[in-house]
Design brief:
Blueprint lengths: L3 E4 L3 H14 L2 E7 L6 H5 L2 E6 L10 H10 L4 E3 L9 H9 L3 E2 L4 H8 L1 H10 L15 H11 L3 E5 L9 E3 L2 H19 L4 E5 L5 E9 L5 E13 L2 E7 L6 H17 L4 E9 L5 E7 L6 H8 L3 H9 L16 E8 L11 E2 L2 E3 L6 E5 L6 E2 L6 E9 L2 H12 L3 E3 L5 H9 L1 H5 L6 H11 L4
Parallel strand pairs: 1-2, 1-4, 2-3, 4-5
Antiparallel strand pairs: 6-7, 6-8, 9-10, 9-12, 10-11, 11-14, 12-13, 14-19, 15-18, 16-20, 17-19
Helix pairs in contact: 4-5, 7-8, 12-13
Length: 453
């Protein structure tokens, strides 16, 4: 088993990984920026080292500095968390070359699945259904217009690299493409240093369903149910749940087996997530694969009883999965709400100092938090300060418990999206499970018209 792990991340996910390492008797090394010197994860780790200034390029994206600290502190492995370097194949390769275990898949597989065009082609070859579209980089705006005419509007323009909705947008006409193509391409190049764009048919009123897989280096693999992540704004998830109320046991098995087969075909090892769009007829289409731990992994942990971080570490250490597919049983329902420092009306970031921070308690309530009283939310990083996860025996109980927990969630000094989460939980369509990726947009539109129920 690994003895010491460096956590190349910050905030709640760094604290989350530290908890599992402590449970497993593994020493932890934190790295932090000047902005995070007083953060909880720095104090919770066994050792902590300053990376540099607050900008990501000076700290959490400084691969060379992170690896040098890992070597100097005699770490066996690096856990990348999510975001920053977590899906950077060059970083994974550099770890390997320095004799440090990267807790994730191989660099080659990461590179393959990190490019949406290449991953689309690989998954199509592996037998997964893909959204009708083009599997090559668009040459220019004229090429995009020609392809859209062949596919049929509406279409989605997408950046091949990166994620988070950057470089992505819907086009309902030629005019839309001409207005947005170069702008989306420019953003993709700025954020990911890659301006390749492609196009897919837009699946209307879709649900966002993802399948969690675990595969070891001995050829064993399992899928651990599905998560529904349809409640999004600006292509960023806000509320996630497991299981999905829209997925039957038979469909869960079909999607899980298909995802697992595809993962094995590309030689995937460690934890990974297949993301799908699902239409109203329950037809599902491969969207992308996340070659890392997901922000929403706790809902899968709550209904399966598995510690996914522990499984990642054991797989990276060369252990075999200790359970079979048949042994995985899902119980109850879990919902996660991401708590953001943002204006709930505009969704704009709202950095500032938290003057008071108290988390709710109660049956089935779990808090994964990276903030505390006195903590300053800076504009340098993602605005998520915590995740509230609630489990119940069924979805109705789960929604009720989360609504109750939010009434005891105390955070002052900054604006948060808690009012929006309360609004979603009380919405009758949400309670019925009638959720699509356009849910929040529809909710906001109805509010403007004064017709919210």
């Amino acid at each position: 088993m690994l003895k010491k792990i460096l956590i190349a991340n910050r905030g709640e996910i760094a604290s989350r990984i530290i908890r599992t390492c402590r449970k497993m008797g593994i020493q932890t090394v934190a790295v932090y920026s000047e902005a995070d010197e007083q953060a909880s994860f720095v104090q919770e780790s066994d050792e902590a080292y300053l990376l540099g200034g607050p900008r990501p390029q000076d700290s959490y994206n400084n691969a060379a500095k992170i690896i040098s600290i890992a070597k100097a502190s005699a770490c066996d492995a690096i856990h990348p968390g999510y975001g920053f370097l977590s899906e950077n194949g060059d970083f994974a390769q550099a770890c390997e070359e320095e004799g440090i275990i990267f807790i994730g898949p191989s660099a080659d597989v990461m590179r393959l699945m990190g490019k949406k065009i290449e991953s689309r082609m690989a998954m199509e070859a592996a037998g997964l259904p893909v959204v009708p579209g083009v599997s090559h980089a668009l040459a220019d705006v004229e090429d995009a217009v020609r392809m859209a005419e062949g596919i049929g509007y509406p279409v989605m323009l997408k950046a091949s690299a990166g994620g988070g909705g950057i470089g992505m947008g819907a086009a309902f006409s030629e005019e839309d493409i001409r207005k947005s193509f170069e702008g989306q391409q420019k953003r993709a190049k700025m954020f990911f240093n890659d301006g390749d764009m492609f196009m897919e048919k837009m699946v209307e009123n879709p649900r966002h369903i993802e399948i969690q897989v675990l595969l070891d280096s001995h050829g064993n693999g399992v899928y651990v149910g599905e998560r529904e992540c349809s409640i999004q704004r600006r292509n960023q998830k806000v509320i996630e749940e497991a299981p999905s109320s829209f997925v039957s046991e038979a469909l869960r098995r079909e999607m899980g087996e298909a995802a697992l087969k595809a993962a094995k075909k590309i030689g995937y090892v460690n934890a990974g997530t297949f993301e799908f769009m699902m239409d109203e007829q329950h037809r599902y289409y491969f969207l992308e694969m996340n070659t890392r731990l997901q922000v929403e992994h706790p809902v899968t942990e709550e209904i399966s009883g598995l510690d996914l971080v522990e499984q990642q570490i054991r797989i990276a250490a060369g252990e075999r999965l200790a359970f079979s597919q048949e042994a995985i049983q899902l119980h109850g329902h879990a919902i996660e709400a991401r708590i953001y420092a943002e204006d709930p009306a505009t969704f704009f970031p709202a950095p500032g100092t938290i003057t008071h921070f108290k988390l709710p308690k109660g049956e089935g309530v779990r808090n994964d938090a990276g903030a505390k009283s006195g903590y300053t939310v800076t504009p340098f990083y993602d605005g998520m300060i915590a995740k509230l996860i609630v489990k119940g025996s069924n979805r109705t109980e789960c929604i009720s418990r989360m609504a109750a927990a939010l009434q005891h969630y105390e955070v002052t000094g900054i604006k948060t999206n808690i009012p929006l989460i309360n609004e979603i939980l009380s919405n009758e369509e949400f309670k019925k499970g009638n959720t699509t990726t356009g849910f929040i947009d529809l909710l906001q539109s109805k509010k403007e018209r004064g017709t919210v129920q």
